[in-house]
Design a protein that fits this description.
Order of helices and strands: HHHHH
Mean pLDDT: 80
Strand content: under 5%
Distance between the termini: 29 Å
Shape: flat
Radius of gyration: 16 Å
Helix content: 55-70%
Number of helices: 5
Low-confidence stretches: none
Number of domains: 1
Largest sheet: none
């Protein structure tokens, strides 16, 4: 969700913009998130997962927990690479 957390966070050896650019999914606005949450509350949902790709990952994880581990490892590796590139001056 687009909240400004990357702008307000201290990230050692990397810029907030570089880290945000490496997030593998498009962030949604706070307004869109609020609408999805309110829609879920109106429908009396016990669990509210959004956007669509979030629901898909949640369902995949519920069915096959190990399925998303490679994606998580790649994301962490990409974040680490950004930090190493920054330290190396690349």
């Amino acid at each position: 969700m687009q909240t400004g957390i990357y702008d307000a966070s201290l990230i050692a050896n990397a810029s907030a913009q570089e880290m945000a650019a490496r997030v593998p999914f498009k962030m949604i606005s706070a307004e869109r998130a609020a609408r999805a949450i309110l829609r879920g509350v109106r429908r009396n949902r016990a669990v509210i997962v959004f956007p669509f790709y979030g629901r898909m990952f949640w369902r995949f994880y519920r069915l096959y927990p190990g399925l998303l581990a490679p994606l998580a490892r790649k994301t962490v590796s990409d974040f680490r690479a950004a930090r190493i590139d920054k330290v190396a001056g690349a």
